[in-house]
Every structure is written in structure tokens, then in C-alpha cells.
Write a sequence for this structure.
């Protein structure tokens, strides 16, 4: 089972590029972030025409997550538990069954800037709720993947210029500590389980020629329960997708599971 996570930065603005990517790459499952569309306005037809089942959790003009799957999507849940008043569309999960069932959780973690401030407080509170859900996924003792745009630079080697991000909410010590707390529960960070060292990025700002200078950061991650990690055969960043007209500022991250 090939699973891709991709912050598309707006389904309406990037639809041709996203469809071209799906045609070329053909993931079994695609977890999308920043769809920036309410559910009823999401352009379902071109995805369904390509054989994908589709579930969305959208919001007008901001945020929004979706799961596309060539397999049926079962037990779909929207919204990260722990705050019934949180109206931001940042979490969706469903079970996908190929040769075996895998729980797919798609997330778009808050940016948190400016920090300190209420947006950073919301980020940390959201990460605490993520930790609670992560504990539940581990307790189930089943394959599960938490995939998406985490808005977290885990280590300095995950930025081309770490000094430029030192005071940013994506790299502050409390952000990194919250991310590590989730990892230390027993999750595997898929990419670092396969690839070590600097120079691997998933996001480049549109401004300042960041792409041309490879001035990127790695903020798109896949965290695997032990049962999912045992099934992983590969993980990679698909940097070539940044080419073409109106590309996203992110590129997809992939894992292959023997499932």
C-alpha cells in the first residue's frame, strides 16, 4: 500500500497540478492538507473519476483535510478529540483495508506564529490533544499512520538555515519537545527511520527564490505505530512535484507499507 501526504495549498487553485500528480504517481491513499474548501464545494468528481473514494473535512478559505483512497474508507472521524469548541478543520481519520487494515490519520497542525501569543498557545494545546489521540492509537495495537503537515521542524538538520527559524513557532524548544513526546510514546518517524542527515526538505517558501536555492525545511511527517512500522518498506520525499504551473509550496511525502 503506497500512502502519500501532500499539503496542496488550495484544491481550487492547484486542481490541475494535483490531478496531474495523481495521474503520474497513482498513490493507493493520499492524505491532503490545506484543501481550503468547504465539503460541499470540494470538486469530488475528478477524483472519483480516477477511482478514488473521498472523505473531506473542510473549512471556507482556510485549513481543511481530506483522504483519498482506492480502497473503501471506513469508520471516518472528523476533528481531533479533546476540544468540542475547536471549529478548525485540521484532523480526519479512517480505516483503509488492503491486504490488512491500516488506520489513516490526516492532520494539519497549527502554525503557531506569532509566538508567544494566542496562536502559539493554540498550537501547543492542539499538540497535547494529538498526544492523547496518539496514546489511544498505540493502545489499539493496530497499524496506524499519522500523516500530514505538522508545522514542526524536528531538528536543526531539518532546515537549510536553522538560524533563520530559531525564533519561529515551527522550531521553538516547546514545539520540538511536544513533537518528541509523541514520538517517545513509541512511534516511528518514517523518513528518519530510512534516511539520515541534512538536506532533505518538504517545504520551500514562494518568496526569495527559496526553491532555486534549496532553502527549505522538513515539516511534513509520517508517524507510525509499531505495527505500521513493521510493515514499512520505504519512505521518500517526492521533490520533483514542485515543478510545473502553480505548484504547492510543499511536496509529497510517501511511505510504502506491506499491507
Amino acid at each position: 500500500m503506497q500512502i502519500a501526504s501532500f499539503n496542496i495549498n488550495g484544491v481550487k487553485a492547484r486542481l490541475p497540478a494535483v490531478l496531474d500528480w495523481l495521474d503520474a504517481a497513482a498513490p493507493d491513499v493520499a492524505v491532503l492538507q490545506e484543501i481550503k474548501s468547504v465539503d460541499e464545494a470540494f470538486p469530488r468528481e475528478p477524483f472519483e473519476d480516477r477511482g478514488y473514494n473521498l472523505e473531506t473535512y473542510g473549512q471556507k478559505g482556510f485549513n481543511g483535510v481530506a483522504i483519498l483512497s482506492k480502497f473503501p474508507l471506513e469508520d471516518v472521524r472528523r476533528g481531533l478529540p479533546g476540544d468540542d469548541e475547536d471549529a478548525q478543520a485540521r484532523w480526519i481519520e479512517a480505516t483503509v483495508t488492503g491486504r490488512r487494515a491500516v488506520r489513516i490519520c490526516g492532520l494539519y497542525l497549527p502554525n503557531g506564529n506569532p509566538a508567544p501569543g494566542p496562536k502559539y498557545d493554540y498550537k501547543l494545546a492542539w499538540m497535547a490533544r494529538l498526544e492523547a489521540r496518539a496514546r489511544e492509537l498505540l493502545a489499539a495495537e493496530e497499524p496506524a499512520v499519522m500523516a500530514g503537515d505538522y508545522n514542526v521542524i524536528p531538528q536543526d538538520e531539518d532546515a537549510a538555515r536553522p538560524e533563520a527559524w530559531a525564533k519561529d513557532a515551527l522550531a521553538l524548544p516547546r514545539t520540538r519537545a511536544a513533537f518528541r513526546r509523541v514520538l517517545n510514546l513509541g512511534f516511528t518517524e518514517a523518513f528518519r527511520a530510512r534516511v539520515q542527515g541534512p538536506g532533505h526538505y518538504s517545504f520551500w517558501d514562494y518568496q526569495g527564490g527559496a526553491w532555486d536555492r534549496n532553502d527549505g525545511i522538513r515539516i511534513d511527517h509520517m508517524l507510525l505505530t509499531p505495527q505500521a512500522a513493521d510493515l514499512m518498506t520505504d519512505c521518500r520525499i517526492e521533490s520533483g512535484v514542485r515543478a510545473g504551473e502553480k505548484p504547492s509550496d510543499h511536496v509529497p511525502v510517501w511511505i510504502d507499507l506491506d499491507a
Notes: The radius of gyration is 17 Å. Helices lie at 11-25, 44-48, 118-140, 173-183, 190-194, 226-229. The mean pLDDT is 96. The longest strand covers residues 101-108.
